[in-house]
Structures are given as C-alpha cells and as structure tokens.
C-alpha cells in the first residue's frame, strides 16, 4: 500500500515537472511567481517574497513587482486562493483557462470593432473566422501561454474597440464619458500587463497626431486620448514602484510635447494650403525637438535605442546586447512566407483590396482639409469623397503597425489581428463598395447593398469549406510535450542539491530551474534591466574563450554553486557564423571567431581554448575549480569548489 502511494506521488511529481518545463524561457519565469504566491503560507507572505526577492538574482534583493509585469500572476493567485475551487482545479489549469478565456475576450473585441466600423454583424463574424484560420500568424497563445503579450493584447483590442466607438459622430455626453472611462481602463490594464506597452502606445499616439494634424479627427477627443495614455502609464508606474523604464518612456515625452506645442503654436488649422503646410512642418519639428529634449532629461536606459540604431543600419555595432537581439529571428524582418499563408485564406488579398482605396481616400481628404475652410468643407462633403473619423483611425493604425510588423517579426501579432478587422470592415462597408463601384462607373444603391453582403458570405463559405475540417482534426489531436533530458536534469537538481544552491547557465534554462526546483539563479530572461544584462554577459563567459581561473572568479563573484553547460549552445548550429552565442562573445571579447570565414582586422586569437569544450577533458587546471556531478545527452552540471 505504501509503495503504491509512493508511486502515485512520484508519477504526480513527474507529471508536474513535465507540465512546467513546457513553459519555456521567460514564460517559466513569470509562471514561477504565480506558483510562488500560491505556495506561500499567506497572501501577505507571498507579496513580501515578491517585493523582497533574493532568489531570482543571487547576491541581490530585487522587487519583482517593480522589475516585471507580474500583477496578473499576483491577482490570479489571490483569486485561486480565495475561490472554493482548489479541490476541483489544479493551479496550472486555472491559469491556462484564464488566459484562454482572455483570448475569447480578444476575439470578441475584434468582432465588435469590425461591427462598429461596418455596421453589420457579418463583418464581425468574418473577422473571427479569419483570426481563427490564421492563428499561426495572429496569436502565439497555444505555444507560449504565459507570455506578457497574451495577457496584454486582449486589453489592447478592447481599447481599440472603445476608441473606434469614441470617434463616432453625435455621441451623447454620457456616452462619451463612459467610452473614455472604458478607454482608460483598457489602457491601464494593457500597460500593467506588458513591459513593451509604451512602444505600442507611442505608435498609437503617432497615429492620433498625424490624423489630428490633417484635421481628420476631432481635436478635443484626441487630447483626451493623449491624457489617458499618460495617466494610465503613470498609474502603472506608481504600482511598479516608479519603474525607471516607464518614467523614461518616449510616450510620456511625446504626448507631453504635443500638449506643450499646442499651447505655443495656435491657429494651426487656419490659412491657405501652403500656409498650413508650413505651420504643420514647424509643429512637427517643435514636437520632435521637445520630445528628444524632455526624454534626454528623464531617460535612464538606452539598450532599446542601441538595438534600433543597429537594426536600421546607423553604424555597425559590437554591443553584445544589441547583437543578441539582432541575431534572433523574432527581431528580424517579417518572412515572406507569412504573406503566402495569409493569402491562402484570402485575408491578405482582401486587405490590400481594401487598403488601397481607403489610403487614396485618406490622402484626398487630408489635402482637402488643408486647402479648404470649415464652411467650404461642410458643403463639399455632401457631394464628394469623405472619410469617417473611426475608419480613418483604424486605417492609420493598420498602416503604422504594418510597418512595425514588417520591420520586426515578433510584432506581427499586433498587425495581423487588426488586419482581420480592417479587411472584414472593407468587404462589408457601404462606403468602400460605393467608392469602388463609382470609380468603375457601375454604382447603384441596390448593387452596393447586394455586393456588401454577397461577397462576405461567399468568402465565409470558402473559408469554412477549405479550413473547417482541418480545424476539427486539430482539436481532436492530442499533443504531448516530450523532453526527457530536461526532466531528468530538474529531478536531479531537486533530489541532489540543497534548497539554497545557486545555479548559473543560460537565461532560458535558468527560468525553468527556478520554476521546477525553486533554486536561486544568477541570471534570467527578463532582459530589461541594465545590471542584469551586464551580469548575463559575464555569466555567458562559460561559452567564451576564457581561462578556467577567470570563469571560476566570475561565477563565484555571483555566489554560484553549480553551473549548467548546454551542448546546444556550446556546439550551436542553429544560427549562422557571426550570430552564434559563442561568436557574439568572441567579438565582444576581441577574439577571432571559430570556423571558416572572415574576421574583422582588429580581432586577435585568444590565449585560451573555449571553456565549455575544454572543461570536458578533465584537465587539472579545470578540475581544481570544477567537478562534474551530472551529465546526460544535453546537459553537463559542474559543482564549483569553495576555495578559502
């Protein structure tokens, strides 16, 4: 009987480890704080453990709530503790189901936005179908559940839906106030759940600025949106103990500069075409100068700017952090095969079909607004092309986020989901079809009404016919995550090392070590802190050409007890020469890279062999500092000697 109980406990533990290692890289790190809060003796102790954390970074006590966007894990863990569901639902499933529930909110928000733009529920249905059939390119939730963007993007979609409603004409004051409140709440939650929120909202603010300059949006509503963005971000800043990355954000500088520039420059929207163009150019220069000036005084960390400078070719860089980003596929250009996948569902074809006439319309309206007075505009709009404010906002939104996606693949999910909205709206829009039919000299009111329903229905039937069987088969297919080497490593760590042991290794692996074993780490994947980046570069010398004494000294400076070496990094083949981790370290250290190929002239041969290769030979100069205590096909664990 006792043996059966022990076997059950062992099997349960094994299943738990297998589940947890499926949360790869930073996903595992974020989930570990949810697990930590649930396992704490009380909510107060759990919060104290996050505010005064000394296990995420050895020899440092950090405030997790200040450094990382984990309030969602805190809220969810408290909810799990107070709800009477512990007997029926394991914490991991509560977490997963909540996130999948948020994805349902995401799809509903996209549905509503499309419906608001087109005026028909058919557009919303087409949006949802496109989102699901293009899920490889519209979401990453099924593979990387705890990622911050999977928490944040549903709130961003809700915010866009609320902004779309806000820009409708003839809203009652009460409706406008409630909509502004919805925008604020969605903006706040979006900002709270993702560290890159400020960059997305900066693009959004740029969209508002462009449209306001061309008098396409009502200035009063745009001003409220600027204020909401600033106040939402500052509230998050307060909750994150005045995080320096938020305080130094370009968004706050940009929005504040716009509001200041408006008070300096008045009568921007009066005068002839040339006069107004001159004023707008001056206004744009003033806002840009003020933004840079304000940001220079409050900026604290430049690693994002170093990355952008290197990415867009403003000089070559040997900066290790920038190169680490640039060599990752996720931060590269959007692959061309993305468009072939989106075209299979007709989404990309329809998107371009809608985007072209809408862009032409926007240019015509912008030029007309600059060259005509308000009274003349009112008369002209009755007889000529017009563009609704809500449609104009969604047009510039999709264009700007499209540019972002083309330049950085990881950001494509912000564009492709909105692509579904925009394409569906255009296909079901009376205004778009009226414009196209008038250009073709085929316009009649009846023909427009028939086409705006017939074409979307045919498109829906095509999508269902071609993709529905595959979706059903995929739902029936059960997939199993299988990584026995990592499971063996985690079980060995739990069974053979003290709870206070400090582990060094790659950022990605150590996140799993923290989640599965609770051991202290030297570094981790949340890469937004300057000190952590410097520390990671030092830890990664285990894959560089350094002497055993140097590596030992570096590791012991962080109180390291064990170091984990991975063959997949030491002998990496995934990246090309110049982008392998060992190459980046060699260049940063001024050493010639391995293998055939050119090297920059100032690089020199190293005096020492590569540490991760040489340590396996068990030479005396290595064994005096490092003892191998675990090995399998993937990992090698060495215990560090403690010299007096």
What does this molecule look like?
The model is unreliable at 1-14 (pLDDT under 50). Strand 1 (502-504), helix 26 and strand 2 form a beta-alpha-beta unit. 66% of the residues lie in helices and 3% in strands. Helix 6 (91-118) packs parallel to helix 22 (412-427). Strands 2-1-3-5-4 form a 5-stranded mixed β-sheet. With 644 residues, the protein is mostly helical. The chain has helices at residues 2-21, 25-39, 43-51, 64-67, 71-82, 91-118, 121-133, 135-138, 148-166, 173-193, 197-213, 219-239, 244-247, 250-264, 273-298, 303-311, 320-326, 337-344, 347-371, 374-381, 389-407, 412-427, 430-439, 445-476, 484-496, 507-517, 530-539, 548-557, 567-570, 581-588, 611-614, 620-623, and strands at residues 502-504, 520-521, 562-566, 626-631, 635-640. It starts with a helix and ends with a strand. The longest helix has 32 residues, at 445-476. It is built from 32 helices and 5 strands. 39% of the residues are buried.
How far do the termini sit from each other?
49 Å
- The share of residues in helices is 55-70%
Mean pLDDT reading: 88
Computed CA radius of gyration, to the nearest angstrom:
28 Å
Extract low-pLDDT stretches: 1-14
Q: Characteristics of this structure?
A:
644 residues; 5 strands; disordered N terminus; membrane; glycosyltransferase; mannosyltransferase activity; transmembrane helix; Dpy-19 like C-mannosyltransferase 3
Question: What's this model, at a glance?
Answer:
66% of the residues lie in helices and 3% in strands.
Topology record:
Layout (H helix, E strand, L loop, with lengths): L1 H20 L3 H15 L3 H9 L12 H4 L3 H12 L8 H28 L2 H13 L1 H4 L9 H19 L6 H21 L3 H17 L5 H21 L4 H4 L2 H15 L8 H26 L4 H9 L8 H7 L10 H8 L2 H25 L2 H8 L7 H19 L4 H16 L2 H10 L5 H32 L7 H13 L5 E3 L2 H11 L2 E2 L8 H10 L8 H10 L4 E5 H4 L10 H8 L22 H4 L5 H4 L2 E6 L3 E6 L4
Parallel strand pairs: 1-2, 1-3
Antiparallel strand pairs: 3-5, 4-5
